Amino acid sequence: MNRSSLVDHTRTLAVGSLLGLIVLGLAWELWLAPLRPGGSWLALKVLPLTLPLAGLLRHRMYTYRWVSLMVWIYFTEGAVRATSDSGLSAVLAAVEVLLCLLLFVACALHVRIRLKSTAAQTSPSPP
What we know:
This protein is an all-alpha fold. The chain has one domain (3-121). The chain is 77% helix and 0% strand. It is elongated, with a radius of gyration of 17 Å. The mean pLDDT is 93. It comes from Caldimonas mangrovi.
């Protein structure tokens, strides 16, 4: 598999897992297992996740880098709620943890592959 297809795959995985986190957060806090019946203001937690979407779609390296750091906030929330909540909420929290891990791995691989590709293009060829 060449580098450009790996970059495309990591981009697809990053965007997909980010969209999954957005949908999961909204569904979780509004319908599936809200903290209060009828929905919760905690659904607003997905707003920061919408910010990097355009940068990921436009291949902005900086966005991939800071998303790989931001995702740990959501990972922590998922880990805490997976161990402290019960029932459906705990299952949804475990799914959140999984999506966070996928997003982190996709972003980290994306950055690594692109940096290697850039280094290979700029290094002088042997005589």
